[in-house]
Structure formats: C-alpha cells, structure tokens
Amino acid sequence: MKSLFQINIRTPLMVLLILTTALVAQAQDSRIQMGSLDHLAAKASQTVDVNIDERLMRLATKFLSDKDADEKEVKQLVAGLKGIYVKSFEFDVDGQYTAADIDSIRTQLRGPGWTRLLNVTSRKEGNFEVYLLLNGEQAGGLAVLHTGNRELTVVNLVGAVDLDKLAKLEGQLGVPELEIETKPKAKNDEK
Amino acid sequence: MKKIFCAIVLVCLSTSVVHAKDDDFKSVVRMIEQFYSVKHQGIPFLAKAGMKVATTAARIKGGQAKRIAEAGSIKLAVFEDQEFDGDFMKFRSSLNGALNATWTPLIQTLSAKSAEQTYIFLRSAGEKFNVLVITIADRDATVVQVTLSPKNLAALMRDPEGAGKAITEEATIIDQE
User: What are the extents of the domains in chain A?
Assistant: First the structure.
C-alpha cells in the first residue's frame, strides 16, 4: 500500500514534469495561429489561405522522386520544412484591419525563441517584419508579417528554414513574392 | 466467438470509413446544392470518355501539351447559370469541417470582386494523390476530383493556384487536338 508521503512527493513531481513538457513544447512551436484574422475575409477584396501541413510535406518527401528534375527540386525545397502557412488579404479601401488584428500575430512573435531579423518600412510597399524562431542554435521557423494600407499578409514557415530558403520559396508553394533582400547588395549593383 | 465478433465489427467499420471517403465528392456536390439551393448538371458522356487532351497546363507554363489528371480519374459536377448567393464564410467553414478528417486543405482563395471562391484539397491514394478542386463563381460552379501522379503533385505544390485552375479547365474545356 502506498504511503501518504509517497503520494505527496510524486504528485508535485508529476505536475512539474507536465508543466516543463508543456513549456518546452510551447517554446519550440513555430506554428503561428492565424485564425484571429479569418473575420477579415468578409471585408477583403481578395483572400488567400495556404495550408501545406506536415502530412503533406511527409507525403511529398516520401513519393517525390530524386530522378525527375521537377520532383527533385520540390523535394529539396520542402526538405527540413514541416509546414507552410500563408494568409493574405487585399482590400479596396484603407483601414480595414485594426492594430488588434496585427497584435494577435505580433504577440505570438514576441514569445520565447522568436527574434526579429528585419523591420523594413516603405511608404509605397508598407511594413515588412521578418522573425526567426531559434531552438537552441537551430532555426525552427520563420514568420513574415507584411502590413500595407490595403494589404495584410502573414507567412509562416515551420521547420528548419532561413532567409535563403524563404527567397527560394517565394512565388512557389503558395508563398507570395515578398522580394525581401537576403544578402547585402554587391558594389556593382549599387551603381 | 468474441474474436469473430470483433473482426466483423472491424470489417464493418473499415468498410464504412472507405465508403465515406469515396463519397466525399458526392457529399461536396450535395453540400453546394443544399447551401446555395442549386442543382448540378452531370456530364456523364465527357467524364466516361476519360475527357479530352488537355493543353491548359502546358499553356499556362508555355510548354508542350500534357495531361495533368491520370486517365479516367476525373469526377466532375458542373453548376451552370444559377445564383450562388450566400455567406461564403459560412460555406467555407462547413466545407472545411466536412473534409478535414481525410483531406488536407492546400489553398483557398476568395475574391469579393469576382465573387469567386476556390478550394483545393489533397489526400494520398496509395502512391498517387487525389485532388479535389471546388470553384464557385457568381453564377457557375464546378467540383472536380482527379488523381495525380507524384510528378503532377510537384507541379501542384509549386503553383497551387495555377495548377488548380488547370485541373478545372482540363476537366471542363474540350480541346480540338
């Protein structure tokens, strides 16, 4: 029969273990929840919602051949990725989304592990924020938040990803053309 | 005796799951009919003929003519010249809820300007893939289900929107080649 002492010691240990596991899992979760933006579809002139989840990534890796050039290229693109999620809204008039809408995304990107890599503001193109999630020394995810007067786009890449990979993915697999410069311009380009 | 009973229950359950999976195309067609109070027109002749030579995908990419869907795999339902008046947010939510268990939503686009909704869902079918493309416009809609080879899955993943359009056009446009 278990003594009261045994039960008392085990219970807090179990609780601590559960809490630690939950915190670690939360810290490593690079999937951004974008459901709070869904209501904007009713006001938007154009809405795009891309969901390439881990199931699909696994299928692609499993069935795409290395012998065929097209299949190989897509296989290389998705290697290391666990998901591609995009939500993009275009509006006909200004001011259709609120600061609270953006904050619902930014709050998640201020969570543990996330670092802002870039923040570019252009009067013409709007504001670009690029965030990277680091799990130790390894990249665990990337997020791009693009806010313009009549546009709101959130791109979330889950898995081992960096800015070069983002550049390769632009215009493919549902990732919009963001045209984010990932490398400093060469001297010749500046002329 | 218990084992036999369990086996029978298991067989019955798996059969009903497979049946439900196979009927997703019909369920989606029925869902559109009920939600928008419209009626689809079947195109049995074209569908049974395994459809036509499709040049659409090639046209989009500027290359040679090629088929996207595997031969004879096309299921098609067309809704022509009817009112698609309804809350698209509600429809999207019902559609996703109905297909979520067996299909992966790849891309969904809504355009208020052209009153067009496009939904592309994907699921594995052995070493091939089933793709379900639902397009609802102002007065027309199409539901297309096709089977794709891994090579065409690569094309779909690369350009989901373009490939989705190509699949619908392949199923609905008769080429004269």
Answer: 47-171
Alpha carbons B50 and B47: distance in angstroms, whole number: 6
Give the nearest chain A residue to B120 (CA atoms).
Answer: A50
Q: Do A174 and B89 touch (CB under 8 A)?
A: no
Amino acid residing at B97: G
Q: What was the pLDDT predicted at B176?
A: 39
- Quick one: DSSP state of residue A36? G
Is A76 within 8 Å of chain B by CB? no
Please say whether the beta carbons of B130 and B123 come within 8 A.
Answer: yes
B145 with B21: CB under 8 angstroms? no
Q: Which residue has the higher pLDDT, A45 or B113?
A: A45
Measured CA to CA, the distance from residue B126 to residue B146 in angstroms comes to 14
ipTM higher than threshold 0.90: no
Query: In this complex, is the C-beta atom of B22 within 8 Å of any C-beta atom belonging to chain A?
Result: no
Bridge partners of B109?
A: A48, B118
**Alpha carbons B111 and A41: distance in angstroms, whole number:** 9
Shortest alpha-carbon distance between residue B8 and chain A (Å): 30
A32-46, A166-180, B76-90: least confidently modelled range: A166-180
pLDDT in tens, B25-76: 999 999 999 999 999 986 654 444 444 433 443 444 444 445 677 766 788 8
